[in-house]
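Issue: copy button drops trailing tokens. Both records pasted manually instead:
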Amino acid sequence: MKKISNIQIPVFVIHELIIRLQEIDPLVGEYKSHYFSTEDAVVETSYLQLRFPMYLLRKQFQDPELISQDELRQQLPFYLGA
């Protein structure tokens, strides 16, 4: 577990976000590794490098239903908007 602000973020939070993104596009790939910068979590999958902002990690940890599909899509490096 890594500490972000005043809460602990378990690794499963990152895995859950990847699973949710895989439902949008299977080309997200499988989790390989991650590290935390001061602003986000940098996540390597078998196909991509993703950056999850800290606010998104907190939302996924505290209340995942608050994350919209559009907000998830915006995490994809090739997302151009609707």
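Record 2 (pasted manually too):
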Amino acid sequence: MRQHFSKIKKAVEVFHMYGIYLHGPRKNDHFIQKMNMDPVFVNGLIFELEYQLQVNLQEEKLKNAGTPKALINLLLDLPHDN
């Protein structure tokens, strides 16, 4: 449980670096369609999350993670040995 909190805290810090705040309904906004983020910046965000959390996300699963909430859920569902 404690590991989830530290992962969430690091993830929130990375999102804040990109100007994405996760409170309220904005956590459900699509990165490209609603937030108007360039795909290059979305890829940078994902890279930074992987680096900070020391995980590898699978491309197939990333296709379904178009919102901050979905991306965080994907990060939390990873096995602990990843």
